[in-house]
Amino acid sequence: MKRLCRRLAVAVAVLVWLGALVYLLVLSRRRLPELGTGAGAGGGGGPGGGETAYNQISDAEWEDMLEGFDERGYLSARRWKPGDDPYTLYAFNQRESERIPSNRALRDTRHYRCTTLQYDSDLPPTSIIITFHNEARSTLLRTIKSVLNRTPVHLIHEIILVDDFSDDGELDCQLLTKLPKVKCLRNKKREGLIRSRVRGADAARARVLTFLDSHCEVNKDWLPPLLQRIKQDSTRVVSPVIDIINMDTFAYVAASADLRGGFDWSLHFKWEQLSSEQRARRTDPTQPIKTPIIAGGLFVIDRSWFNHLGKYDTAMDIWGGENFEISFRVWQCGGSLEILPCSRVGHVFRKKHPYVFPEGNANTYIKNTRRTAEVWMDDFRLFYYSARPAARGKSYGDIRGRVELRKKLKCKSFKWYLDNVYPELNLQTEGRNFTADYYCLVHC
Asked: Which intervals hold domain Glycosyltransferase 2-like (predicted)?
């Protein structure tokens, strides 16, 4: 009897071992869902196209897809070499960036009340658009991985990278599209941030567009608050609180949640504290903050609303001033801008640009902001020229199409914007008092 029991035990053990072997063999040969690669990846015919397979991915399979990416091979190119200045290539500490893991843990910098908020279960998925030109591989990968690791799978329709003619050729695109949900487009020439974002938006298939810079790290539960506000009102354009990633140490530092975007008459962006009256009206620290202007690097917008408003002004070059143009346009044409304290995204702020502006940094910024002033600021553009006299006489291209767009959309005046959105705009600049001129514009 004992001999029979031993034989049965051995037989059962063999069967279990064979079953486990077969399971592992099948698992190793299982095909993962096909990923979009390169400029030809369509992602389906509408907001839901191509999403079903991804929604069926288990957590374990998702982790396998992330871990299967050859991170060491990707990061091996253009690494910092001992003896080189770590700031030369990217205007931040490349050595420190490469030392930090691509999936490092971050402190949750939200107010504790944010963790108690509930969001709809049927939030619309988004296409996340990230443009880059000669970006450090460590920061670009950390941006993408933070999105993949800290965003519910079903809310990411796709991540669209737009390589703005980087020196590496097709290599970045070829390697990064091995990550889940990542597609990549490559420009045939240098186009700049503005036209690159429009190309990414034109390729997007989700109902909602999310624009991110290529040196960011999204924090915990960053996306649902943004999508919730868009779902409730598609004319809102919403931005997270932008935390600071130190360019020297890459320490992640919480930013104040009592800030909004502001500017002076030279169209120089600045962060400004909410006034004591505004803070007193905010009885709940999780409430959205209305902002006259967004920083421009990170925001979420309904795709149909983005198209209806005229996308970006694609006659602007490279970078700079586009945040003023889109902010004025949103407010004056029937929308609103908000910063959401319960959404946090870190950003590497640099002291200078690591790339070249073909026409020079200053000339490019003047061209772009002059286009903004001429189209959207009405007679108040005179204050812009007084604050930035170098702009007078500088070419800014043909603006007839943007002027016609403003007429077609029946947008409000810049005086309406000043009265209703940004009455605090200081009428003092460069030692000159604009109060008398302002009075004449309004009353004369």
From this structure: 127-309
